[in-house]
Structure formats: C-alpha cells, structure tokens
Amino acid sequence: MTVPGAESVDTDRLVRDGVRAVSCDAQTLVVVKPAGMATELTTDPKWSSLISKVRQAARDNVRPRLVHRLDRVTRGIVVVTLDAEAAAFYSDQIREGMWDKYYLARIPRPDPDREALHRGVVGKHKAHLKDDGRRSRIVRSGGKPSMLEVLAIEPAPGRPGECHALIRLLTGRLHQIRIMMAGLRLPLIGDDLYSGGRGEMYLEHAALRYVDCATRDLRSAFSRDDPEREDVAPSLLDRLERELRRPITS
C-alpha cells in the first residue's frame, strides 16, 4: 500500500522487496528493515541491502543516504534521508544525542528461585566497550563509555523460560545491547557470538522519537500492530507507548 506523501520513493516497490515504509515525505523516509537484511554493504552487486533497495525505488534526482544503521540480525526502524539537508540535520541530532531509541530483545528468564524478575536488571547500566574485529568486548579501561536503560521485563508469550526486555539505548556502539545484556548474564537467546546458546535471536529497534527535518515537529516512529513483530506481552507495549509520551531527556 502506498504511503501518503511518498512522491520521492516508490513504496509499493519497497514492499515487494520486503521493506515496509512507515512514513515518507520529500526529505525523510522511515522504513522497517527485516532481520537478516544488511543495512548497507561495501559491495552490493545483487542490490540486496536496505539502502540499495531504497535507491532502486527512489524517483529520479532523489539521492537516499543513511545516517544510522542496524546490525543484519536486528529488525526495525531505520531513517533514510532523501536530500543533503536532511542528512546533515539528522546527523547533527544523532551527534547531540537527541534521538530516543527503544528496543525489544528476547532474553532468558532470570531464575525466579534466585531473584525477582527485575532485580539487578531493570535500571540504567554503564560499561566501557572496545571493538574487537567484528565483535565487542567489555573492558575495564580504554573503551568507549556506553549506556543503556532496561525499562521493563515481561515473560515472552508462548516461550517458557524466556522474556522480552524493553531497552532504551542511550549510546550507539557496536553490538551494544547484545554485549551489555550478556554482561548482565542475560545474553539474547540464540546470540552465539555472545554466549546466547541455541534458539532464534530476536532484537528489534521498535520505536524512535526524533525531530522531523521538514516540520521541526517531534515525531514517534512506532507501530503497535507491526505484523512482523513476534508476540510480545501487551503490558510491555503499553509501557513503550507511555515512554513515547514523556518529555525527551538525556
């Protein structure tokens, strides 16, 4: 279905390529990247990355650019700029920490015989991270200061022994959520890079708040009824919607 205002990009073509558009105007395209699709590739002869698909769907004289990226294994919200002004505007917002980013991650359920579901996990966490090739490490010194906040944890419907965590990402480092949750002894299910064991990994950039380049209005990119999202407790989505209504703070 064509997104209203999508004169700059053929959003129907994006849907056929597996990419759903959330919103689109002359300067900003917001899409949902599927898990398993690279956001960008150094060489992309098959046009399989997200940005390649957007460029194929763009109208003449439109030059889509990325200002942020998601890991291949992560699904969810990606903002693509459609002109140089928007690219500069959003890059400045990101640099100044003005984007509010929320993620859903599936993790093992903490042992209820040892501790409450939330004890020691819900709250803000800080670590120093260092890139080590294609992975990240927690180090005592010399790494990049990295912060996130675990807002809530609820049992994952239909998945005994597993939960979903709602996470606000406060900095943007390589594999930050994956390595920091592993550091809390709750690695994402199926994340074999960080000792997550067997299973299918689930990490979603579920919501983003940002100031729109064209209107300067505060916008929230979030779909409660995302058809590709795995089953999540309604109370967790309720909490996310409350977060999207609160004033932005650092």
Characterization of the model:
The protein is an alpha+beta fold. It folds into 2 domains: 11-98, Pseudouridine synthase (2-Layer Sandwich); 102-194, Pseudouridine synthase (2-Layer Sandwich). Helices cover 18% and strands 31% of the residues. It has 5 helices and 11 strands. Strands 1, 2, 3, 4, 5, 6, 7, 8, 9, 10 and 11 form an 11-stranded mixed β-sheet that branches. The chain is globular.
Which CATH C-level class of the largest domain is it? Alpha Beta
Number of spatially distinct domains: 2
Tell me the fraction of residues in β-strands, as a range: 25-35%
Overall residue-averaged pLDDT value: 92
CATH superfamily of the largest domain: Pseudouridine synthase
Radius of gyration (Å):
18 Å
Count of DSSP-assigned helices = 5
Shape: globular
Poorly predicted runs of 5 or more residues: none
List the helices and strands in order. HEEHEEHEEEEEHEEH
Biggest sheet statistics: 11 strands, mixed
Number of strands: 11
Span between N and C termini?
36 Å
CATH topology term of the largest domain = Pseudouridine synthase
